[in-house]
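Honest question from a wet-lab person: if I give you the sequences of every part of a complex, can you actually get the arrangement of the whole thing, not just the pieces? Trying it with mine:
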Amino acid sequence: MSGLDRRWIYLAMMLAVALPILWNGVTGKTFPESPTPPSQACFDAIEALPEGSRVLVSFDYDPASEGELAPMATSFMRHLMHKRLKPVVIALWPLGPTKAEETIASVIKTDFPDRVNGKDFVNLGFQTGNEGVLKVIGTDFRKQFPVDRSGTPVDRLPIMDGITKAGDFPLVITISAGYPGGKEWVQYVSSSNPGLVLLAGVTGVQASQVYSYYPGQLRGMLAAIKGAAEYEALVSAAIDGDRVTAPKYTEARRRMAPQLFGHLLLIALIVLGNAMYFAQKRCKAVAP
Amino acid sequence: MSRSIALLICLVGGLTMLVSPFLPMATGWANDVTDWFNILAAMAFVLGGGSLLKVQLMRLSARGPGWGYSAVTLLAFAVTLWVGLGKVGVVADPSAPMVPWSGKPDDEGSAFWWIYLYVMTPITSTLFAVLAFYVASAAFRAFRAKNLEATLLLATAFVILLGRTFAGVVLTGWLPDWASGLRLENLAVTIMDVFNTAGNRAIIIGIALGVASTGIRLLLGLDRSYLGGDA
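Yes, you can. This is the full assembly:
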């Protein structure tokens, strides 16, 4: 058993993930989710904003982390649109603007076609410089983002009226996969603007570090796909009620079944490995 | 002389950033310094591209092991650069329909967009997903309860693994309200909230102190390793 070919483990993991995905696809069922305090705080912070408030949303991820973060981005955008809030989208990662465009196309242009680009939402694109960008937008937002993604000067965009610095936004959301991301937003934006509310959606590997800033500098956070599923359930309950939710708004919850069986397999493998380890140890101890 | 200029730039730039939060008049200066940094960062993209070309071309010409990968890298680099800079397949922007290059290189329908959607996205997603298989194999082979610390780590891992899924609710959802803190999903939150946060905050504070002391050494010219060579 100790010489078990690792390909059997790979096969088991493939089945543990693939079969629940198939089950989801056939039945359309998902597990119920009850929100943990950090996810509930994200929902409450957005609910507390008055209609028409502008929200800075930073897409700080790329396709590698899409599995965990894209469902968060979709839920955030849907919630903002439903509350008639106005997202101003930026990106600190080069591939962030494309992810943002995908989310805008899937949520705003499809389900909220009455919203006008430049007035109700805008994508200002990517800016290189990592935390340097955050340092500057803390005092002069337009210096870093003078035009939107299509080249229109921000001075001509109604959504940017009166916005001179990051602190002018009542709420900032970062959906982040690493550096620069949640930690840098706390250090360079949240800390220097005490009245600003910062929310973060982060990957599982980042969560343990970013958790240190919750609930002080970080008002709420979505940790990995579990956090995304909890927040998605809250948003669906608020918007859809008893109606059937469109599949694109159940992505995170549908990923909880593969996660469950993946985790159970991991535990089984650890237990099995340890059982073998102690059995071998005992054999060695009793051997003459 | 060149090293002295570099040290002077570091000192002036660093001090400007340092005093800007305390002197309102220095805020604009700090933004200017950040602009210089951004320009340097943009130039680093060019340097990075040049370095990639140099290394891969050397590997290719030496025909060492894995030279085929270098060929693929160079081909992908050249094609992506060409379709991006040349705006291949870009649809004209509606505001200037007569100008074929008026659209953005990554607009839907362009070659760059196609490469991003059908090459880059699947490759990066697949590479990330492959981690699940390696983690499973490593869990089986390496995660052993050899001593008390390792056993505690294992127990914590089990609570987090179960508490972050519906299994936690199934296994401990029956616990009465007065014992709800022992439910796996709540235990997972407690571990993250208390033990993880305490440990991470200690690490973060330690790192911050290290960064501050390193920053002072750089500003005073005591640490010149960033200049390269034997400086």
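Two things worth pointing out. Chain B touches chain A through 54 residues (CB under 8 Å). Chain B has a mean pLDDT of 88.
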